[in-house]
Amino acid sequence: MPELFTTPRFVRAYRSLAGKNPALQLQIDQTLRRMAADANDPRLKTHHLSGELAGFLACSAGYDLRIVFSKQKNEKTGAEVLVLTNIGTHDEVY
What we know:
Layout: E1 3-6, H1 8-20, H2 22-37, E2 47-48, E3 57-60, E4 65-73, E5 80-89, H3 90-93
């Protein structure tokens, strides 16, 4: 099970979304639990990005909510980690 790491940008965007709509926080937290269990869960609709975001992946956290992340290896343990870089609507993150 990969660990989830957050960037400051992700934390700011998460707090902003949760502050505007507390119901989204539950939806996002459920998505993060699914990602930690299996980032390729079909319900997440995980896909590779291209263009300026090449090398990153995105998954769905709701109808128009996306989480942008990358898969990396922990240098100390060799375990896979997911680095969460951004969250927002389709237009905000792409």
